[in-house]
């Protein structure tokens, strides 16, 4: 259907008047992807990889920067109980974090490993990394993790003080190791995604309104280093973050009516 010129003009004016704060609007996600919960890129691919969360298909999508779907890979022998984040390793393998736990009833969590060689296929059989939490820590909800060395770093989603756990990047069953608790300053500090630079020198944690940037730390306690809070000056349900390069992030948000459902760029050199 060809839209009348007047409607096209009104649409462009409306888009131009929309404020995204410090975010750069890069693309619009397809309407078929309403609940994008994670974002990741790998050096060997020019695509932005995304997933959807609980109740959606067990599919990994490869998007252009404009938001067009170029690849859809069904992840076999898996179930999308609550897929919440993506990370990758230096070999280009992708990992899907199935560890959402909104009702705090889950006691076992999964991380699906998708081999780089399978990213050109329509179907993939993942490796399985399963983990439980130390009993003393009780039930937790996770929405963020990243991979560094041979460890996954998992951050709980909390309204105040979050917990950091590590899990070995090894196929099989494990018990997560509790590292420490940490409290971010301010209100609305629930972490929805995280990432680390390829050199391991910078960590970012995302929520709906901002990112926290951590540098000059000693892993695993990345929050022991210098910390900077960077505001988007824009509020939406942001669920996915990854490094495009050492100074720029890709960020995605879920669609909520006419709001969200976009891919953004964000410079870590932005000031509040």
How are the SSEs placed, and which strands pair?
Blueprint: H1 5-17, E1 24-28, E2 36-40, E3 48-52, E4 59-63, E5 69-75, E6 83-88, E7 94-98, E8 109-114, E9 123-124, E10 127-132, E11 142-148, E12 151-156, E13 161-168, E14 172-175, E15 177-183, E16 193-196, E17 202-206, E18 210-215, E19 226-231, E20 238-245, E21 248-253, E22 262-267
Parallel strand pairs: 5-9, 10-14
Antiparallel strand pairs: 1-22, 2-3, 3-4, 4-5, 6-7, 7-8, 8-10, 11-12, 12-13, 13-15, 16-17, 17-18, 18-19, 20-21, 21-22
Report on the structure:
There is one protein chain. The protein is mainly beta and 272 residues long. It has one domain: 6 Propeller (Neuraminidase), CATH 2.120.10.30. Helices cover 5% and strands 46% of the residues. The strands form 5 sheets. A 5-stranded mixed beta sheet has the order 2-3-4-5-9, with no helix packed on it. The longest helix has 13 residues. The radius of gyration is 18 Å and the shape is globular. The N and C termini lie far apart (43 Å). About 4% of the residues have low confidence.
């Amino acid at each position: 259907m060809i839209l009348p010129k007047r409607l096209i003009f009104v649409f462009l004016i409306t888009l131009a008047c929309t404020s995204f704060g410090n975010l750069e609007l890069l693309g619009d996600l397809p309407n078929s992807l309403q609940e994008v919960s994670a974002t990741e890129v790998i050096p060997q691919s020019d695509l932005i990889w995304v997933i959807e969360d609980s109740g959606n298909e067990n599919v990994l999508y490869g998007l252009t920067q404009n938001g067009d779907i170029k690849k859809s890979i069904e992840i076999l022998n898996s179930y999308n109980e609550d897929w919440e984040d993506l990370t990758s390793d230096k070999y280009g393998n992708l990992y899907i974090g199935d560890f959402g736990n909104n009702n705090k009833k889950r006691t076992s969590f999964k991380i699906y490993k998708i081999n780089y060689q399978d990213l050109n296929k329509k179907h993939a059989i993942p490796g399985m990394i399963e983990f439980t939490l130390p009993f003393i820590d009780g039930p937790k909800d996770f929405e963020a993790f990243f991979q560094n060395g041979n460890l996954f770093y998992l951050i709980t989603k909390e309204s105040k003080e979050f917990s950091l756990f590590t899990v070995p990047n090894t196929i099989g069953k494990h018990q997560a190791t509790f590292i420490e608790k940490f409290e971010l300053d301010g209100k609305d500090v629930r972490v929805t995604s995280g990432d680390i630079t390829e050199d391991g020198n910078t960590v970012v944690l995302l929520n709906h309104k901002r990112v926290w940037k951590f540098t000059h730390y000693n892993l695993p306690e990345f929050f022991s280093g210098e910390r900077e809070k960077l505001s988007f000056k824009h509020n939406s349900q942001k669920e996915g973050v990854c490094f495009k390069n050492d100074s720029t992030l890709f960020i995605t948000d879920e669609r909520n009516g006419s709001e969200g459902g976009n891919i953004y760029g964000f410079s870590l050199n932005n000031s509040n």
